[in-house]
Write the structure tokens for this entry.
Amino acid sequence: MFSYNFFLFKDLPSAWLCGVRITELNEEMCRAKVRHNWFNSNPFNSLYWVVQGMASELTTGMLIIKQKEKLDYNISMLVTSNSSKFLKKARGKIIFECSDVKKIEDTFQHLTKDKPTAILNLNSKGYDEDGDLVSEFTYEWSLKRKF
């Protein structure tokens, strides 16, 4: 995980400074954690929604990057829209996870010279230390394969 968290430090320093860290990245899912503290708090004594967004987006984006590296594809990727729901105050350690690997694999199979672009909707959910769902995010990713 060191190399992925070094990526955060180097390329996404605001997420790194807020305490977002990848804890698991494999063939089935990506997990990221962030602990609520004074630096990433909102005035209501919970994790600021933007920090939740950074952690949740990271779980979706890292799975795309992993698939890109696995297939050795040259792609550009961009979040074109997102939505979120907040169900409970996010306090303590929050774990975000995305397991939409099958959607990503299927999308990559359809990126051809005739159809090099695709839209992909991925979900990430955040859970507190008690296992309660605190927030849900959906990201619409635009992918374009470069040949």
Notes: The chain has one domain: 2-145. Helices lie at 2-11, 13-17, 49-71, 101-109.
